Every structure is written in structure tokens, then in C-alpha cells.
Amino acid sequence: MTTPDPEPGRTSGLEPGGGVPPGETPPAEGGRFGISHPEPPELRTGWGPMPIVLIMIVVALVAVGLIGMVVMLIV
């Protein structure tokens, strides 16, 4: 399906070069209804359980390492 595209030579109200004089409404753009392809399915948002568990393990290992460093400095 094609949209109508007015020819500049036959469209009233256009100045030479395709400009529109003040107070004149330019021709409307053609459009299409609907979409040309199906929309993608909704993506999951938010954190799943596995990334949170991995982050908690890394935080625990860093905390154990820092506590171990403090204990080694005291002893």
C-alpha cells in the first residue's frame, strides 16, 4: 500500500522551491494504520534468583577476606 504524495508542481499554496507562505497549511503526511510486523514478546525485568545469589556469595567472600586481614593485623 502506498501513501499519496502530492506533486509539488500541482499542489496549491507552494512557493517556488517548495516553501509554504505564511498562513498556509502545508500538505499532511501520509500514514499507515497498524504495524508492519508483530511486536516482540514482553521481556522479563528485574533480577532473577541466580544473579542475587552470586552477588551475595561474592560479598560474603570479600567480607571474610577483610575480616581475615584485620585478624592478621591484630595477631
Brief characterization of the structure:
The chain has 75 residues and is mostly helical. The chain is 35% helix and 0% strand. The N and C termini lie far apart (82 Å).
What distinguishing features does this structure have?
75 residues, 35% helix, 0% strand, mainly alpha, single chain
Notes on the structure:
- 35% of the residues lie in helices and 0% in strands.
- It has 75 residues and is mainly alpha-helical.
- The mean pLDDT is 76.
The average pLDDT is: 76
What does the radius of gyration come to? Answer: 33 Å
Uncertain parts: none
Order of helices and strands: H
Strand and helix map with partners:
Elements: H1 49-74
